[in-house]
Amino acid sequence: MLDPGIGFGKTPEQSLTAIARLPELKSFGLPLLVGASRKRFIDTVSPAPPDQRLGGSIAAHLLAVAGGAAIIRTHDVAETVQALRVAAAIGSAR
User: Fold this and answer.
1) Alpha-carbon dihedral of residues 2, 61, 20, 33, nearest 10 degrees?
2) Which of 33, 35, 87, 92 has the smallest CB count inside 10 Å?
3) Which of 38, 39, 40, 53 is catalytic?
């Protein structure tokens, strides 16, 4: 698998860019893993302590999956699974 390392040695802007450009990493032919849960880059967009970054974490993970992520690492499993299921259902209703 390939993990772009959201937050690890990156500026908040680099983490945002890594998620935005995730589709480019699909060319390596490996499953993509994204762990954006509660990361500091969320605080730069919408200031909040780590335990109050659920909304930002879910937004990042929804966009990561839309960009090709096959594996998500999250602190808030039930909420993230629910969001991903609802997003998939909406996508299937088109």
Assistant:
1) 0
2) 92
3) 39
| pTM for this model (two decimals) | 0.95
10, 26, 40, 73: which is the annotated catalytic residue? Answer: 73
38 belongs to the catalytic site: no
Concatenate the DSSP letters of all residues of 34-92 into one string: E--TT-HHHHHHS---GGG-HHHHHHHHHHHHHTTEEEE--S-HHHHHHHHHHHHHHHH
Q: Quick: pLDDT tens for 2-58.
A: 999 999 999 999 999 999 999 999 999 999 999 999 999 999 999 999 999 999 999
